[in-house]
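Checklist before submission:
- one chain only
- standard amino acids only
- sequence pasted in full

Submission:
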Amino acid sequence: FHQHYGDSHQLSATELIAQYGRFDFVFIDGDHSLEGVKQDTQLALALLSPGGMICWHDANPKDRYLDVRHFLETMPRHALATADTYIGGVACWSEPVERRIRDHAQR
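Returned file contents:
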C-alpha cells in the first residue's frame, strides 16, 4: 500500500510504474476541477493493472464538487456510485464492474 500526497499533476506514470509496478487500486481525491479530474483519471488509467479499480471521491452533487459529477456522467466508462442522496460519496470503475453494469442494462 502506497499513499501519495501532493500535486498529482506533477506525477509521471512511467516513474511510478518503474518504482512500484502497476496499481491494483487508485483512489482519486484531487482538486475537484473538471480538468483536474480528467488528468487524474488519465494518470490512473495509465497506472492501472488489468482488472484494477479506480474510485473517485466526492462523486455526488455538492456545489463545489459538481465538476467531479459532471466528469463521471460524461466519461466513456460506466462507474458505480453511491446514491445521489449520499452527499460526497464515491464512484468506482473497473473493467469487470463495467461489464456487469452493461450486461445488466441489456437485460
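Reviewer check: Residues 1 and 42 are 21 Å apart (CA to CA).
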